[in-house]
């Protein structure tokens, strides 16, 4: 089965991202706007038990932290993805690193960590240029506190749902 690890932002950020995703992201109906901490990976039930134990330890060793979305950006020319860029705070980067250590299931991610929330993908070059050009002019400034992350699994129809939620901090 396929799994992934994400942060779901607040409803306010999700609504903002979805106002673009419903037009520009073919995965709109498959997953809620999110910050990917560990891209999709395959795991068996036995592997999952060890992984959830590790995720519990990681969550207990982290405190809630600030998340700041501050502009639209793009991965072009590598691919035509438009996203809300997030500040790479020390805490967010540390959480990402703790979840992607070499001994963890799924191995090392293919791309370096760029904290973001995707709002458009699969766009033609012209469409990407037009959409990104207009979005770049918009002001973006969302601040919130992250106090949890989620282990997701993929359903047969391709959509993703929460398997388990991990609250940050020793008291959780």
From TrEMBL:
NCBIfam families: PRK13679.1. This is Putative phosphoesterase Q75_04805. It holds the Pfam family 2_5_RNA_ligase2. Belongs to the 2H phosphoesterase superfamily. YjcG family. A motif (HXTX 2) lies at residues 116-119. Keywords: Hydrolase. Its EC number is 3.1.-.-. The active site is at 34 (proton donor), 116 (proton acceptor). It is an enzyme of class 3 (hydrolase). InterPro entries: 2H_phosphoesterase_YjcG-like, Cyclic_Pdiesterase, YjcG. GO terms for molecular function: hydrolase activity, acting on ester bonds. A motif (HXTX 1) lies at residues 34-37. PANTHER family: PHOSPHOESTERASE SAOUHSC_00951-RELATED, PHOSPHOESTERASE YJCG-RELATED. The keyword Transmembrane does not apply. It comes from Bacillus coahuilensis p1.1.43. Gene3D superfamilies: Cyclic phosphodiesterase.
């Amino acid at each position: 089965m396929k799994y992934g690890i994400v942060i779901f932002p607040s409803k306010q950020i999700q609504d903002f991202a979805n106002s673009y995703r419903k037009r520009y992201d073919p995965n709109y109906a498959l997953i809620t706007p999110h910050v990917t901490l560990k891209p999709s990976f395959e795991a068996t039930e036995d592997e999952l038990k060890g992984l959830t134990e590790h995720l519990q330890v990681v969550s207990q060793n982290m405190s809630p932290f600030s998340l700041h979305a501050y502009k639209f950006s793009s991965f072009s020319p590598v691919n035509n993805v438009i996203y809300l860029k997030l500040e790479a705070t020390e805490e967010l980067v540390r959480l990402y690193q703790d979840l992607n250590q070499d001994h963890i299931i799924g191995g090392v991610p293919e791309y370096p960590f760029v904290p973001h929330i995707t709002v458009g993908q699969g766009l033609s070059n012209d469409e990407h240029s037009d959409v990104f050009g207009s979005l770049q002019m918009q002001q973006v400034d969302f601040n919130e506190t992250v106090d949890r992350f989620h282990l997701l699994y993929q359903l047969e129809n391709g959509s993703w749902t929460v398997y388990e939620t991990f609250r940050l901090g020793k008291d959780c």
